[in-house]
Amino acid sequence: GLNNLNAKLVLLGDMGAGKSSLVIRFVKGQFLEFQESTIGAAFFSSTVSVNNSTVKFEIWDTAGQERYHSLAPMYYRGAAAAIIVYDITSTNNNQMGLMKAILGFLLVGQYIGNPNMVMALAGNKVDLEDKRKVTAEEARLYAEENGLFFMETSAKTAVNVNDVSLVAIIVLCDN
Ligand code: GTP
Ligand code: MG
Fold it and tell me: The whole model's pTM is what?
C-alpha cells in the first residue's frame, strides 16, 4: 500500500565535521568547498520515494560551535533518528569527547523522548584517506558497543550519503 511518512532527523557533532555538507549533498546534490559554519541550526526538508512509500525528511542541521551546544536538545527531541558526525581526518581530541557527550545526552533523551530513536555514527570526509586519523575499525567498535549504526561518508564524493538517510527509512518502515 501507499504510505506517507514523516521523519524528523537531526545531525549533531563537532564544528567542521561536515554536517551541513552532508545535508546539502543529500537534499540538493551539491557540495561547497567553502561551506559556512552554521549559526544556531538550519532546517531542510526533502521527500524520498521508496517502493510505494514516500518519506518526508525534516532535517535539523545543528551548529557544532560550542556556544550553541545548549540548543541541541531542542532539535533532537522527538527525532526519529540522530546522526552523530565526526571528521575522520581530525586530530582534535575534543571531537571524540564531544561525540561521547552527545551520545550520553541522546541516551538519556531516548527515555524521555522517542524510545525508538535510531542513532548513527557517520565518519565523514572519507575522500581524504591520506589524512585519516580515525580508523574505521575503532569507530565501528565504538558504534557496536553503544548500539549505533556506523558508516563512513563523503559529502564531497557522495559516498554513502544515501545510506545515512536509509537508517531513518528502515526505522520508520518498521514502526
Ligand atoms: P558547523 O556548522 O560549524 O558545525 O560545521 P559543519 O559540521 O556543518 O561542517 P561543514 O559542512 O560546514 O563543513 C566544514 C568544511 O569541511 C567545509 O569547508 C566543507 O567543504 C568541508 N567538507 C565537508 N564534508 C567534506 C567531505 O566529505 N570531504 C571533504 N574533503 N571536505 C568536506
Ligand atoms: Mg554546519
Answer: 0.91
Atom from ligand 1 closest to the CA of residue 31: 20
CA distance 155 to 172: 24
Is 8:56 a contact under the CB 8 Å cutoff?
no
Per residue in 85-94, pLDDT (tens digit) is 999 999 766 6
Which triple of cell numbers denotes residue 136? 574505521
Which residue minimizes the CA distance to atom 23 of ligand 1? Answer: 18
* 130-161 core/surface letters (b: 16 or more CB in 10 A; e: else): eeeebeeeebbebbeebebbbbbbbbbeebbb
CA distances from 63 to 17, 32, 109, 148 (A): 10, 17, 19, 21
Rounded Cα distance between 59 and 44, Å, is: 5
**Partner residues linked to 50 by β-bridges:** 53
Nearest to 65 by CA among 81, 100, 41: 41
Res. 152 pLDDT band, cuts 50 70 90: very high
Q: Is 34 in the pocket of ligand 1 (CB under 6 A)?
A: yes
Interface confidence (ipTM) of the complex: 0.99
Q: How far apart are the first and last CA of the chain?
A: 15
